[in-house]
TrEMBL record:
KW Oxidoreductase (keyword) present: yes
Pfam family of the protein (one): adh_short
Gene this chain is encoded by: actIII
Coiled-coil blocks: none
Keywords, in A-Z order: Oxidoreductase
Protein name (Swiss-Prot/TrEMBL): Putative ketoacyl reductase
């Protein structure tokens, strides 16, 4: 773990996983601008150092933790890095994806995806939530996806992990409704990050579509988190798409997603 010094005075404290780039970096930036000190976690140490330098320039005290949060060892290491400091905000954002026909995609990558997107999220939330309940205070943000509103052909495992995060978050929110802890689910649509390239989806309609600004997505997420909302789909266009997908028959919604995610659909 490393830290970038800033104002040592007591400030609210936020932990952001996947905080070195994309939506996670913008969540951390948004929270830093709102007065939070930060602990950002990701696997790549150099990316974390670069992100910390950016975030510290805004005045926040920034700590980093490097590790594969799909493993129990790294999740427990991150919890130790928190060091008993009260976590005011936990953003469970780290995740990976993979596109393609399930019969042909790489099983090892999909199992890694389940470990990171689901297992790691549950493990870290369990550890931090116990600390939050002990003091009856805290806010949790899960980064799910608009993909959680429909079946997701050619992203079958990824979509399933995002459905899990959506309903995991909603269930925890209900369990905690009479406490001082809130849970919010962020459900972005296609966003300008490295996701589609890393998921081998550059040749899909989704991969080639005009994408949302991750800073806009993060602001919507943090606004909803601070307002205590249950979930948020950023931008009006995406809210309409999500609402339609939620009420369409599953077969129809799956066909719509197929049109976006099928390999070669962007040609």
């Amino acid at each position: 773990m490393s830290d970038t010094t800033g104002n040592p005075a007591a400030r609210p404290f936020a932990v952001v996983t996947g905080g070195s780039n994309g939506i996670g970096l913008e969540l951390a930036r948004e929270l830093g601008e709102r007065g939070h000190d930060l602990l950002i976690a990701a696997e790549d140490e150099q990316h974390l150092r670069d992100a910390a330098a950016q975030l510290a320039s805004g005045g926040a005290r920034v700590e980093t933790y490097a590790g594969d949060l799909g493993t129990a060892e790294a999740v427990e290491g991150l919890h130790r890095a928190i060091g008993g400091r009260p976590v005011d905000v936990l953003c469970v954002n780290a995740g990976i994806g993979l596109g393609g026909p399930f019969a042909e995609t790489d099983l090892a990558t999909e199992l890694q995806m389940i470990d990171l997107n689901v297992r790691g999220a549950v493990h870290l939330t369990k550890l931090v939530l116990r600390d939050m309940t002990a003091r009856d205070s805290g806010r949790i943000l899960f980064t799910s996806s608009i993909a959680a509103t429909m079946p997701d052909p050619f992203e079958a495992v990824y979509g399933a992990t995002k459905v899990f995060l959506r309903w995991f978050g909603e269930a925890l929110r209900n369990e905690l409704k009479d406490t001082g802890i809130t849970v919010t689910v962020l459900m972005p649509s296609v966003t300008e990050t490295d996701f589609f390239h890393r998921a081998d989806m550059d040749d899909t309609r989704a991969g080639q579509a005009n994408k949302d600004d991750p800073a806009v997505v993060a602001k919507a997420g943090v606004d909803a988190l601070m307002a205590g909302k249950d979930k948020v789909i950023p931008t009006l266009k995406n809210k309409v798409v999500g609402a339609i997908a939620d009420v369409l028959p599953d077969k129809a919604a799956a066909q719509i997603h197929r049109g976006l995610s099928e390999p070669g659909s962007g040609r």
